[in-house]
Amino acid sequence: MRTPMIAGNWKMNTTVEEAVALVKDMQKELEDISNVEKLVCPPFISLKAVSELLAKSSIKVGAQNMHYEDKGAFTGEVSPLMIKDICHYVIIGHSERRQYFNDDFYINNKVKAANKYGINPILCIGEKLEENQSGLTMDVIERQLEQALAGVEHIGNLVIAYEPIWAIGTGKSASAEQANDTIGAIRQKLGSLYNNKIASTLRILYGGSANAENIAELAGQSEIDGALVGGASLKPEQYISMVKQTSAVYNKK
């Protein structure tokens, strides 16, 4: 059985002091939950402080983005070499990065760079509202997968996050059944790109206004392996509840 993950994407929120305090508020209650992988992704400035705090913890640390080059004249960017010793994961291709920073052109290189340095990539894919309404969801997702994974031979450490863009930060969410059907189709596409055995072992998360109110229904679906969480991950009681509910659901499977 695939180990579920609840990944908290803090986005551009929290100072270093606030990030440390947020982790401390959650750590004790999360520490002993072993059947769910807990991941926090603070801003770059807090990665070192948070990773030091969680060095002996069961809670993992991830970056929200990275450049694909090792070093160079890329002002304001952060390379895989800078995060590889303090991060277990890196989010690649989040819809906000695609929308605001033109990341579509670089996602494939970022996946390859993450693999090169042993950082587990969380690859985000998903469609816009007009694409969803036009019945183009799978056309968009298949294209994103093909582009992101072109020339990537090994995906055993890959996590996929399906995040319908129309559901991010809007309070709207795909129904659990809709999300499950789409994630099942994503798994089929991965099977065709690689093989069904590999596809069956990969974790695919749902992202898009996931919170403590809908996580149990989402986690109870056959294809959904947890969630990439935005705003709710900044509220200790919400994030803890999501992890505990996911744990309880998987104990019954």
Descriptive notes:
- With 253 residues, the chain is α/β, with parallel strands linked by helices.
- It has a single domain (5-252), classed as Alpha-Beta Barrel (TIM Barrel).
- The protein is built from 11 helices and 8 strands.
- The protein has helices at 16-30, 47-53, 80-83, 95-101, 107-116, 129-133, 137-148, 176-193, 196-201, 215-219, 236-252, and strands at residues 5-9, 37-41, 59-63, 89-92, 120-125, 159-162, 203-207, 226-229.
- The protein has an 8-stranded parallel β-barrel, surrounded by 6 helices.
- Strand 7, helix 10 (215-219) and strand 8 form a beta-alpha-beta unit.
- Helix 1 (16-30) packs parallel to helix 11 (236-252) and helix 7 packs across helix 8.
- The chain is globular and about 45 Å long.
- The termini are close together.
Task: State the name of the first-level CATH class.
Answer: Alpha Beta
Strand content: 15-25%
Largest sheet: 8 strands, parallel, barrel
Separation of termini?
9 Å
What are the low-pLDDT stretches, counting only 5+ consecutive residues below 50? none
The CATH homologous superfamily: Aldolase class I
CATH level-3 fold name: TIM Barrel
Query: What structural category arises from helix and sheet content?
Result: alpha/beta
- How many domains would you count in the coordinates? 1
Strand line-up of the largest beta sheet: 1-2-3-4-5-6-7-8
Rounded to the nearest angstrom, the radius of gyration is 17 Å
Number of β-strand runs: 8
Mean pLDDT: 95
